[in-house]
């Protein structure tokens, strides 16, 4: 179980890797059942809907370039903020989108990603 900033950073790296690979099994383990995933366009997905979009290929992450990551720990909660440039494909549309994000992890039996919120940002 992560106890340090580097451990939480490692979980974030696993999440990025899972998104790139569309590894829904790995992501299902990392994601809390109550996940609220707010995309930069305002669309909000539950864990099930988000994983289904990845599994079906309806949403595909082609490149993920995070930077400016900051992690704060508060008892059983980790808050990660940063900048990321995402290259995605949804249907026939491909987009390169710089966003500012907040990722929230909570620790129960294990650390799990419970919330994501992102907003458009200039690169």
From TrEMBL:
Domain DUF4440: 8-112
InterPro entries linked: DUF4440, NTF2-like_dom_sf
Gene3D superfamilies: 3.10.450.50
Name of the protein in question: DUF4440 domain-containing protein
Organism in which the protein naturally occurs: Nocardioides dubius
């Amino acid at each position: 179980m992560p106890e340090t900033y580097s451990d939480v950073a490692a979980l974030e790296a696993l999440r990025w890797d899972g998104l790139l690979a569309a590894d829904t099994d790995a992501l299902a383990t990392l994601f809390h059942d109550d996940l609220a995933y707010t995309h930069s366009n305002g669309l909000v997905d539950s864990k099930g809907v988000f994983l289904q979009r990845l599994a079906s290929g309806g949403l595909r992450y082609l490149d993920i370039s995070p930077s400016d990551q900051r992690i704060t720990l508060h008892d059983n909660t980790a808050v990660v903020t940063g900048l990321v440039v995402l290259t995605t494909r949804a249907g026939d549309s491909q987009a390169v989108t710089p966003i500012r994000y907040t990722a929230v992890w909570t620790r129960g039996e294990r650390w799990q990603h419970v919330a994501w919120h992102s907003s458009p940002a200039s690169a």
